[in-house]
């Protein structure tokens, strides 16, 4: 925020214009000539040459036997003033000290007072607040001997600034009120408005935004009356900063743009530079990094022209942050290095330290840990003398992390142990959590897994004490801690505990948004005890965790014992890329399957996460192709075999003789059907095992054990009219920061009842992937004479919620939804089902039913089946949207849920669903095994299709429906 501060009052006329009379002293004459030349250059804003002439004038004046006090003081003042304009406050301070010295030498208290005030302002600019306050108080004592209210106003205002910087906002307000009284006595409305603005700023710092707005408003009214463009620009800027803080970004931008327009009218380059910088900051916070970059570059150009090194350095740092968020580390490093060079010129000690840390972070991001370590050490050396504990502890944490990454965990641990009590002392809960986690990672690197586990548990305990952290960020920190804790338990041979932590991780990710008693109950049970794991005879549960790591962990429970193993995916990824790397990259680029940035984990630097995600995406895309060539078929088999070999390596002895595999996978693996993996015998995995899925074993067990009456009607059928009522312009998210900002805004918007349509455009441009013709309704409904339905124009969100509230969905075995929709794996909270658009709908009742709204439905079914457009093409490395939407139906009351991963044409989809429902009815509504039976019948080409001969359906031969496109798209969660 730009705050209006009363500027130095103009130097009296004798300081500005030398008399033309020369008193016969050649040194005076030469000094006057240089002075006059300096004024010309200064007026032309050629400050470098003006500075040179002023220094020559000062040199000539000093050589005189009788130096003129007024002229000498004016020369020193203007030299300091130009250094101020350039942001070189160390040099300006030097010349202001000479000005004070001259005042004392020639017994000019006016000159001494002016010099002291200027010294104080330089001290403030250098961050030396205590020295500034002392100097201003000296100036105030001198001013008591004069009756110069304008000077008194300036000095009192500056003392208030010092108190504000020290955080004494009440003291600052007291001084500003004193300044306001002086300004009112002077009757200068410009000064009155300036002080009112400063008082408003103090209330801003006290977070009393109502009072802030009051004082800013009073200042604005005065400046509108006086038509002071300069003051109006600052008023609008202050209001822009206030509304930015309040999160009212549209109003903030509007005020900054008004201020910018005034600055342009006045040709005020300094004002324009400040306003452009503020606009850049807002757009960066909004996630629009390209627009932010444009504003920053404009501001940078103006500050370069002004010669303001301090502001130039600051904006270079801002640009570095933008490039870092985009993953453009070379450009980020270049910006930070240039900023560092300027900071060194300016001798800005604290800024240099921060800049060194920024550069260290860039080198860390690039995997150059030795260089990162060097820069963090330099930052530490500078901070050691400042006594700023928080910064010093951060430096130690950074150094410790680099030592661990450099293979020196014991040395790294020493730094973590030194920084930990500091974070506790100053109450930095977030860094206390991360520091304990880092200490655990150091012990992990030393293979001291028990100590590592203790540290990770301590970090988990402290997470609840973090304040000012979004739920999304809290969830991400917990997920990282649990990943390390799970791996440490697995390496320490505590396989049940590894399984338990995988459960906790899943449930707490759900609990971030879906704060439901059922989830909370399971979390508490897992945290406080070790509940027994129940599983049917002939079944095995397989958990795939830490899938973003190069060494994911697989845990198998066979009904008797737990077995864990780290899976090294590096060789598999290398092998696949050696053979098809160019094809994968071309395919991904052509289909726009993966965002252009890689999601990095704070505590790790896994090298093959992005490549593995691309492989899985290509594989899933091949599975979802309806018209498959021989080459595509060969690729499906290749990828399916390679993924099976990777994921099930050495698992045979633990799943031998099993009939059913229950898969629990996180990350990117949660987006594919395991049924389509290819076994060493050349068969699809579903041909050997029944496959179903869980997001939590304990939660699924609770949901499946619900007791519902046997005498229920067969089906409730929901089908919306069409998805054409929800157009949306698709935009591209370019950085992880932009994604996080969008996610926070979307989640907050949903909680506050905003329409979903404002958010889903980043994942699709409308619903064109599936045609909800009446054929599915007619074909499926005809199977069940007791079926009820909500379809067509009547299938609105309002009608759905009203029926749920009346309990009309509680008497069915099947809840079947044939709708459009989107699953967003990275932000599951905004996944939704689209119902028919209703005229006049607004706010949360927008026709798009998100997962929280689904979870609040009242249904008592054996299965909820969602036949819709499926996962969107944009896939990120975090998030499990499929099992989140399945969980929502479980929470609503369904024992199990089935979701389609991609769209399948009407007839094939209908044939599959009719086979599924027929088989389930014949097997006493056992949907888990029935769906696998149907998939096997499709693969073999022996599907009965309810009495029709298969050759009537399989017009292109036996291979048509054996294509995974037709049968692998539905996956079932729960029992």
Characterise the protein shown here.
It is a single chain. The chain is of the alpha/beta class. It is 60% helix and 7% strand. The protein is built from 40 helices and 14 strands. A hairpin with a 4-residue loop joins strand 2 and strand 3. The N terminus is likely disordered.
Short overview:
By secondary structure, the chain is of the alpha/beta class. The model is unreliable at 1-24, 593-597, 766-772, 869-879 and 946-958 (pLDDT under 50).
Terminal residue distance: 56 Å
Low-pLDDT segments, ≥5 res? 1-24, 593-597, 766-772, 869-879, 946-958
Provide the structure class.
Answer: alpha/beta
Which descriptor suits the 3D outline?
Answer: elongated
Helix fraction?
A: 55-70%
Q: Could you report the average pLDDT, rounded to the nearest whole number? A: 83
Radius of gyration: 35 Å
Tell me the fraction of residues in β-strands, as a range: 5-15%
The main pleated sheet reads as: 6 strands, mixed
Number of helices: 40
* Strands ordered across the widest β-sheet: 7-6-8-12-13-14
- How many beta-strand elements? 14
